[in-house]
Specification:
mainly alpha, Fic-like fold
Length: about 300
Amino acid sequence: MAQPAWYKRYEEYRDEALRYTKAIGNVQQGTLQDKEICAFAERSSVRLIFESNTIEKAGTKTEGETQAIIRRYATRFPDDADFTGIAEYFRTQLSQPPSIGFQGRIRTEQEVLQHKAALNFVSTIAARRKTPFLNEEQIFALHRLIGTGLMPDNAEVEAGMYRIHNVEIVGSDVLFPSAALVPSAMQRFFADANNRVSEVLSGLETDIVMVAAEISFRFVRIHPFPDFNGRMSRLLLAMTLRAFGVPFNLALRGSVAKYRNRYFYSLKRANHGDLKPYATLIAMCLVESFREIDENLRLAGQKTLLD
């Protein structure tokens, strides 16, 4: 008997993802399992940056290029840096963008480095696990990190400022809120997102996948900034899941045509009120990521996460 379509297997993938997330709490620091999780977390950050930029048709040509850029400049923004320090570095340095190799694609390096700084930002917020979880100051800072020096000429606002023009996606029937509605729509977004995160952290809600999907999609549905909304939504997805116990930054495999098509299909369904395909894609990618960790542990003859 054929399996149901991928977007109809939410409960299956979600439950396995939850089992893995729970099992992570039993891994002892310093063990081989812990070291493999940490190594995967490093790889996943590079993967997220590369694949998120690929979805937006920007950034490097390969994951290896992305990794090389990050390693070259890693000391400029260590993972434990406070996000205000990262923001200050990029505010003062971006007048002279990095100009390392890769055929002189200067904007490419800048996009990668700023995306990495933004990931450091979300990791810092996720680790605090404080409520309220999100606020306008953080969202503006995150957008400045990822968008400074890269905003389109027709935006007419700087990075870290809401859009002042109405927007639409050519060929889509989605009607985004007018620019005049964005500030109030975002205030409601913050209130709803903080309430949902609080429910999870207090144990009142256990479906971390659906909550993360809600927060990520609600943000991109408002489309509050002139540019970088998609990348921002995927950063918020990673940040929320990290706060809920996922030990790595989730990538949605945007560099693979099959997964990229699933991503856009799931957003289309979400735009028409059905969030489950998007949540299913998130749960599926979580499970596949955890399985990658387990496969490496098996190759080394070690106890897997679910053993």
